[in-house]
Design a protein that fits this description.
This protein is an alpha+beta fold and 355 residues long. It is built from 18 helices and seven strands. 53% of the residues lie in helices and 7% in strands.
Length: 355
């Protein structure tokens, strides 16, 4: 089995490049990827190519802390589809019950990582001294590994409302010239050149209560991500086909089956065998797009309803309330309030202009 990462991680990198006014196509090409192949896809990307993209993006932007800066942005930003779906919210919220502490959240993160998608061979060891979160990357990647570790810590701090520090952080790659910046970020001993990436937390940190005030939205995001980790290839193809039609019309069972070159009955049977249905997948695609468009303050809600092919704005509001427990207006107000807390690190010019 080829180790892979979900497409949403790739979209995070592309969003970061776009924010810095950096042309993504040549960077994708150097990593063996292309925007044409990625467009509308839900299929995983081989880890080797994802790592190549992270490292190439760092060089193109002349930013040795590219992965950390993406993590800092992700810790507060919730307006993009990539952030809504590729977020470490599996460690913060669940569909049935929210983790009550940082320790429970970290445990959920480990449990949610699919063996062939995401960080490699992640495990959590708990003893009297605290917890050791260990991830052994088959191919050490300074940018990606630092992104993952920084995301866990930064999102964990925000979830708990406490500016806690790990007991120690270890990376497989060498220190390089960004070691001091990582020391300041983690505020704990950081070592390099180890056999595994490791995040160590004391019992006092593991017991910190989590208090997300927007749990319903983030719960949806984490639930979607876990669903994708367990999604059979046939279901992923169906979702990608539904997504590709959304810009022009509301995809029907007939139109989707035709594009997949199967009969409607065959499509229904295959989805049923995978434990889902066409209606559920269509609803999920509309929900994902709704979260992205509502959190993008430039879209009027009536325009969002039209883009998602609802009969009117009232029907959209009812569906959104069913998905999130809140109206679109309530979520937009919370998102706008959260932007006041956003603090994104910025650097000078490299190959690309960066905001």
């Amino acid at each position: 089995m080829v180790e892979s990462v979900w497409i949403h991680e790739i979209r995070l990198v592309l969003a970061a490049l776009d924010a810095r006014r950096c042309a993504a196509e040549p960077i994708l090409a150097r990593a063996g990827l292309s925007s044409a192949v990625l467009a509308g896809s839900e299929e995983p990307v081989p880890t080797r190519r994802a790592i190549a993209l992270w490292e190439t993006a760092a060089r193109a932007t002349d930013d040795p802390l590219f992965g950390v800066h993406v993590a800092e942005h992700l810790a507060f930003e919730r307006r993009t589809a990539a952030c809504a779906t590729f977020d470490f919210d599996a460690m913060f919220n669940g569909d049935d019950a929210r983790p009550r502490s940082v320790g429970e959240g970290l445990a959920r993160f480990v449990h949610s990582v699919h063996p062939s998608v995401g960080p490699s061979h992640v495990e959590m060891v708990v003893d009297q001294g605290g917890a050791h979160l260990v991830g052994r990357s088959l191919i050490p990647s300074p940018q990606r590994d630092e992104f993952i570790c920084a995301s866990l810590v930064l999102r964990g701090r925000r979830a708990a409302g406490v500016d806690w520090a790990p007991d120690g952080v270890t990376f497989q790659h060498e220190r390089g010239d960004r070691g001091e910046a990582l020391d300041r970020l983690f505020r704990c001993p950081v070592s390099f050149g180890a056999e595994a990436n490791e995040l160590r937390c004391l019992p006092s940190v593991l017991g910190l209560a989590q208090r997300w005030d927007d749990a319903s939205t983030f719960g949806i995001a984490s639930g979607n991500t876990r669903d994708r980790w367990a999604r059979p290839p046939w279901v992923a193809r169906c979702v990608a086909t539904i997504s590709s039609q959304m810009n022009s019309a509301l995809p029907s069972l007939a139109s989707t089956a035709a594009l997949l070159r199967v009969t409607e009955r065959t499509l229904q049977r295959r989805l049923a065998d995978s434990g889902t249905s066409y209606a559920q997948l269509l609803d999920g695609v509309r929900r994902d797009r709704a979260l992205r468009l509502v959190e993008d303050g430039s879209w009027r809600l009536a325009r969002v309803a039209f883009a998602l092919h609802f009969s009117d704005e009232s029907a959209f509001h009812r569906a959104f309330k069913r998905w999130t427990g809140r109206t679109p207006g309530e979520l937009r107000q919370r998102t706008a309030a959260g932007e006041d807390e956003t603090s994104t690190s910025r650097r000078g010019d490299g190959e690309c202009m960066r905001s």
